[in-house]
Amino acid sequence: MEIEIISFGKIAELVNLKNLNIDGIKDTDGLQKHLEAVFPKLKEIKYKLALNKQIIHANSPLTSGSVVAIMPPFSGG
Amino acid sequence: MDRERYHRQLILDGFGTTAQDKLLNSNVLVIGAGGLGCPALQYLTAAGIGRIGLADGDVVSLSNLHRQVLFATTDIGKLKTDVATERLAAINPEVFIQSYPFFVTRNNILELIADYDVVIDATDNFESRYLINDACVLLKKPLIFAAVSGYEGQLAIFNLADENGITTNYRDLFPVPPAKGEIPNCSENGVIGVLPGIIGTMQAAEAIKIITGIGKPLKNKILNYNLLEQSFYEIEVTPAPANSYVLPKDSSSFLKMNFGNQKADIKKSVIEIDISELEDIRQKKNTLLIDVRESHEVPQLNRGEFKQFPMSALQNLLNEEIVEDHIILICQHGIRSLSAAEYLHEKYGNEKNIYSLKGGIARWKNFFTS
To answer: Can you name one GO molecular function term for this protein (chain B) (predicted)?
Structure first.
């Protein structure tokens, strides 16, 4: 199954992919583990995940076509 | 009220005298007169807010001018609050501008924001952002948050109940501040000048919407803006589960909060120094001066005197067996050098004295360029 990844700021430089085939991955925890294995630098940065435009605070199931956004905090002004 | 001044918005469908009166009777506090604060202040003043508070302890510098469009080249070195107050009064003398020429701290912020209906966070660092967030939660003040990085911006309204009575705050997104050096700021990462112009203007727009009741303010949502793609991506924010973070329940516990900007927070053996302390320490034998900026950054320093170990290859510095007892780290603004100092402290513990030049080369420019 395929999902869409949207990333911002520093994360977009690290995670340079838009569509991801996630066969074998069922949920956002699994996705997070997968992304941090492929992009180890992700582990060093704070970020928040949103699933289908809604912030998630706990593990959530993924389905085909899910859109996952990876958002870091910005401080600049 | 000068009707002609506000004529074009008075004739707006759904605005009129009622909304204009609400603006005239309102007050807004803008914290930070930088890239975001300048456009926010200009539009709020022009729109006819009754009283605008402006807090910033900084002076205008040359590298501000590409984005802080309220200031001119001749203003360099002057207090931002002084220059801004003068310019804003010229734009609209009907608006009362209250200037606070200092940075917000946990000791002054509660008193400051208690006096305002709406708070705009236009600062440029995480310490201030968490401080402002927590103060606004405690005093139940609507907070218009914005931040920028590179070509992207974020905008959100916190502490304002939606139709279901739900409020959120910045800690529902990011419960604790990032570590020093984890997320680059504008002086390290860069920012295109027009970007805070767009996002700061949106902060003014949201303030006007909250005050007048027109439209749909961005409550419990964070808008991500990408200038290069010219795209917007809105994410709904929901309250984090209980105990995800702890907020002070009253002002006395607020005053005891650690917002990361107190000296005691820095690990004991990393000492932030000013230029005269640097001068003293470098006279000692066994002192090593390290510049952690990238090789393209200017001004270039004497490589014989300042050994270069760019932050992007920090491991090289950590692999180096330093023989000197005193290590002074410097960078452009004293942020990367502090982070590098903390890493070195982890390696050497109390075996060596490790210093970071506070404010960096930018603050002590005359010293480094003369």
So the answer is: sulfotransferase activity
Q: What pLDDT digit, counting tens, does each position of B247-275 carry?
A: 988 999 899 887 865 433 344 568 889 89
| Residue B38 is among the residues annotated as catalytic for this protein | no
CB–CB contact A53 B236 (8 Å) = yes
Q: Spell out which residues of chain A touch residue B34, defining contact as CB-CB under 8 Å.
A: 77
The total domain count for chain A is: 1
Looking at the domain assignment, is residue A21 inside a domain?
Answer: yes
Q: What is the pLDDT of residue B2?
A: 84
CB < 8 Å to A8, chain B: 152, 224, 226, 233
Question: Number of A:B CB contacts under 8 A?
Answer: 96
Q: How far is B179 from chain A (nearest CA, A)?
A: 9
Q: What number is the ipTM of this complex?
A: 0.96
How confident is the model at residue B264, as a pLDDT?
36
Nearest CA in chain A to B195: A77
Contact residues, chain B, for A54 at CB < 8 Å: 235-236, 238
Does some domain include residue A57?
Answer: yes
Is residue A77 in some structural domain? Answer: no
Indicate if B136 belongs to the active site. no
Q: Which domains does chain B have, with CATH numbers?
A: 7-262 (3.40.50.720), 266-369 (3.40.250.10)
Residue A76 lies in a domain: no
Which pair of tokens denotes residue B232?
């917007």
DSSP H helical ranges for B234-351: 251-255, 275-283, 314-319, 336-348
Encode pLDDT of A44-60 as tens digits.
889 999 999 999 999 99
User: What is the CATH number for A61?
Assistant: 3.10.20.30
Question: Could you tell me the residue range of the domain that residue A33 belongs to?
Answer: 2-71
Q: Classify the phi-psi angles of B104: left when phi > 0, otherwise alpha if psi is within -120 to 50, otherwise beta.
A: beta
